[in-house]
Amino acid sequence: MVKRFENTDYWALILGGNSGLGLASAKKLAAEGMNICIIHRNSRAEMEKINQDFSALKQEKIQFLSFNKDILNPQNQHEILAELKKTLGSGGKIRCLLHSIAKGNLKPMTGSLNESLSCDDFAITLNAMATSLYDWTKIIFDENLFAEDARVLAFTSEGSTKPLQNYGAVSAAKAALEAISRNIAVEFAPFGLRSNCIQAGVTDTRSLQMIPGSEKIVEHTKKRNPFKRLTTPEDVANVVALLCTDEAAWINGCVIPVDGGEHLC
């Protein structure tokens, strides 16, 4: 098998790559020869399974780093970048910044004060799932760690434009994420960055399972999708890898559906 990124000294920095779409993308990019750095936040109890997945990545004979730290903490951000900079050395560059952070409040807008969405819930969700994309893009850019032709990718959903019960804060964050991505696409283009959002179809991940009534969403999607199945993390990971290729350099500022045509129905 030809590994498209072998011997390039390219890195993918994945925010939230411990499971779901982020982990699947890490596996695909590693299999293509790209070095991987994953930043995640997990408890000790969760680490046994995560370490098994990370060990599998290392089997691809790539360089691998992981940090179990709060991605949103400014002090952690600079410490991580300093460590990554040492590992990259003089030749390594970040080809792909992949935003896969799923940290949002899933509450209804109505109900008691303690049970319904608050402004703080919105602020926390927007910071984690939207503005953090800009934070990380900017600090990587300021440290001159991006490759000359780099890709900034983020996962969005249909919820950015369609309402869903209990999804108000995440919906607002996804809409903001797309807006931020578009501006990165324009303002950082002179410096070689391409920025796009991937709108994955309904995928059976832990994030989906946390949404109240997710079973009904899965059932409806299987009927709605033209291929009568859910999107898989591997479907999405394949597109992440494609967008990192040289041939995808002219794709910029887009929201790309990766759902088998689900959004059409």
TrEMBL record:
<keyword id="KW-0560">Oxidoreductase</keyword>
<dbReference type="InterPro" id="IPR036291">
    <property type="entry name" value="NAD(P)-bd_dom_sf"/>
</dbReference>
<comment type="similarity">
    <text>Belongs to the short-chain dehydrogenases/reductases (SDR) family.</text>
</comment>
<dbReference type="InterPro" id="IPR051122">
    <property type="entry name" value="SDR_DHRS6-like"/>
</dbReference>
<dbReference type="InterPro" id="IPR002347">
    <property type="entry name" value="SDR_fam"/>
</dbReference>
<protein>
    <submittedName>
        <fullName>Short-chain dehydrogenase</fullName>
    </submittedName>
</protein>
<dbReference type="Pfam" id="PF13561">
    <property type="entry name" value="adh_short_C2"/>
</dbReference>
